[in-house]
Design goal:
Shape: globular
Radius of gyration: 28 Å
Distance between the termini: 73 Å
Structural class: alpha+beta
Helix content: 25-40%
């Protein structure tokens, strides 16, 4: 039986949320309070520019960069933020937004009510929708969309039908979606959520009527309450919180939302760090590494780029015991489960390409693909997977609303500028040779001081000492070599 625990760590600078399944870290999120997520916030914005060629518009909502509103989120269909709660049997036929024109929907200077569905990522501004979605504990209210749905993670057909029948009786205008936490809840349990969301929407409307664009009219819950609302379901065994004020805040929230979960909340009273005490910090050290070792001895290489994420599967130290085909199949099968864990843990999104080790047996390919599909079905983020290619590549997309964990916890290397590589020592030595020759052009017997990184100095006096000999004996340079450990390996300084 799977044991799932939720850990919430709060301090004046950040809120950290972690989920362990059978003592293994499967999800982690850190929200720095100076750069909090704006996903879910509702703004009254002003259209700054309409782009017919892109069928989109830039909207000023008061953030440093203009936000982006695509016609798909300004037209007549549900946006990605609400679509993740829908199963295929709930989706109705929607008009193709591409048959509309963005200029018919929006004009420059127009004030509109929008909601953020994706945080600013890199150089891109936040992504918006005009279809407001207000999530509660058990329900999501869609005031501008007439549609009823049930979480795709509720798979029992009878339960889905029962829940749909309940929400179809709601008299409030708009659409409703039953969240995963709403499974096995009756009409009496769903009614308080319905009332709360309807009142919330009324408050949002009143704030929007009184506000001047650009301005914030509704702020999402705090990171701690958002985690409890979205993650704390009946499947969670225990919740640990290391801040007494947040602990009381969570208890008050659950007393109103779901009192049955209150006994599972624990206050961590020890002086040590919560995440360190449960081994979560040790796991995080591995998350920033591109190589992920498998128990068999195989490994994954995960590379994140601006355009896509690539995952390469390798046999590594695993040599198997039967045949090459069986060895490859075993590594691929083990890798499949770990890949889905890494997608959740690293919060990787967008286009993802998995390069499995080549398999000759079609049945093995089918098993790997079916296993991957089954594992992805447990992922809270919405994914779409394409069939495996003849060369073992699998392409999938995973919903992305905020920067990945790597982007949150690390920054671009100021030396390699994101390439992950620096110049070889030989390359550096040949560059400084060209610089030295330029300095000494036409002047024999010239004395020059050369300061380099210790690694370059050792290389010049060892494997590449013939370069120094050539400069001194053939070109007449008297080189005084010195080291500076504070230099970058590619850095050197020449003075006469």
């Amino acid at each position: 039986m799977m044991s799932t625990d939720l850990f919430l760590s709060v301090n004046p600078f950040e809120t950290r949320v972690a989920v362990l399944e059978n003592s293994r870290l499967v999800s982690y999120r850190a929200e720095r309070h100076r750069a909090s997520s704006v996903v879910g916030n509702v703004y009254k914005g002003r259209v700054n520019r309409v782009l017919p060629g892109m069928q989109a518009a830039f909207v000023d909502i008061g953030l440093p960069r203009n936000a982006f509103l695509y016609i798909r989120e300004a037209g007549g269909i549900l946006d990605d933020f609400t679509d993740i709660f829908l199963a295929k049997d709930d989706e109705s036929q929607q008009p193709d937004p591409m048959n509309s024109d963005i200029s018919d929907l929006l004009q420059e200077g127009q004030e509109i009510l929008v909601q953020v569905v994706k945080d600013p990522l890199g150089t891109k501004g936040a992504r918006l929708t005009t279809h407001i979605s207000l999530p509660g504990r058990f329900l999501v209210y869609l005031p501008n969309v007439s549609q009823v749905g049930v979480s795709r993670r509720i798979t029992d057909a009878d339960e889905r039908t029962r829940l749909k029948e309940i929400v179809e009786t709601f008299d409030a205008p708009g659409g409703w979606i039953v969240r995963t936490a709403g499974e096995n809840q009756g009409a009496a349990e769903l009614e308080p959520d319905r009332e709360y969301l309807c009142l919330l929407w009324e408050r949002v409307q009143r704030s929007a009527d009184q506000a001047r664009a650009p301005s914030l009219v509704h702020r999402e819950l705090s990171p701690i309450l958002r985690a409890v609302r979205d993650v704390f379901t009946q499947a969670i065994s225990e919740v640990w919180i290391d801040d007494e004020e947040s602990f009381e805040e969570v208890l008050d929230f659950l007393e109103q939302a779901d009192p049955s979960l209150v006994p599972r909340v624990r206050l961590f009273r020890q002086a040590t760090d919560l995440m360190s005490s449960f081994g979560i910090d040790r796991e995080l050290e591995k998350v920033l590494r591109p190589k992920v070792w498998l128990k068999s001895g195989g490994y994954l290489i995960i590379n994140q780029t601006e355009a896509l994420v690539t995952i390469d599967v390798n046999t590594g130290k695993f040599v198997g015991s039967q045949s090459l085909e069986e060895t490859v199949f075993e590594v691929n099968l083990e890798a499949t489960v770990e890949i889905v864990r890494q997608l959740r843990l690293r919060d990787l999104g967008g286009i993802i390409v998995i390069d499995f080790i080549d398999m000759e047996d079609p049945e093995h390919r089918r098993v790997i693909y079916d296993t991957l599909s089954t594992e992805l079905a447990t992922d809270p983020a919405r994914t779409q997977i394409l069939p495996m290619s003849d060369i073992g590549l699998v392409q999938l997309t995973r919903k992305r609303t905020r920067p990945s964990l790597e982007r949150t916890l690390s920054r671009e290397c100021p030396y390699c500028h994101g390439s992950g590589r620096i110049k070889a020592l030989t390359t550096v030595c040949l560059e400084l040779r060209r610089e030295l020759l330029a300095v000494a052009a036409g002047e024999m017997d010239q004395q020059v001081s050369l300061t380099v990184h210790p690694a370059v100095s050792h290389y010049l006096q060892g494997p590449f000492r013939e370069l120094m000999r050539e400069l001194e004996e053939i070109h007449g340079l008297a080189i005084i070599l010195s080291e500076n450990p504070l230099f970058h390996e590619e850095q050197f300084e020449i003075s006469e």
